[in-house]
Task: structure prediction
Amino acid sequence: GENVEQHPSTLSVQEGDSAVIKCTYSDSASNYFPWYKQELGKRPQLIIDIRSNVGEKKDQRIAVTLNKTAKHFSLHITETQPEDSAVYFCAASTGTASKLTFGTGTRLQVTL
Amino acid sequence: GAVVSQHPSWVICKSGTSVKIECRSLDFQATTMFWYRQFPKQSLMLMATSNEGSKATYEQGVEKDKFLINHASLTLSTLTVTSAHPEDSSFYICSGPSAGGIGEQFFGPGTRLTVL
Result:
């Protein structure tokens, strides 16, 4: 089955700096790659996603890149703000049943 | 996006009792729902796929006799934790896939289970 690895496990940046989180996946059949932000005790919140027919997607301060050949995808957050502090999860799906395999998570802390 | 509700949002029970968690899709029909479990400071792990009108599909290592899943209608899936023990204490989250089976999943708010 699919295996998703995520790095780093923790990331501390100063407000205004950029943050990058990287994930790799194992199943070449995976074609949908969402990123979630989760605050303590709450459901995962989709912040951006990308499909395998696209190499990059951007939404304001957030961008995701996908390298299908290398089987890795990355989340980029620019101009970080304290409210970006949370745990971020990447995930992968083969799409046929939308079952998601999650990465191990990255705890992002944005300091003033 | 579509809305998924869960009930209860939290539950505390004694060891050995059973607990039922409901997951409802409020504005869409779901032939498939997913149940995830999340231990503190860990990732979401898929437990099983709930299929309307048929048996659930369990992930490897998940005891189907302990975690009973029923998908009675296109808007309701239930997870029953039978004979709960402290090690079952976790955050349980359900989700429903977007139409077409490819793409975004809509997550319920989760249920915090604490077994004493």
The two ends of chain B are 36 Å apart (CA to CA). The first strand of chain B starts at residue 4 and ends at 7.
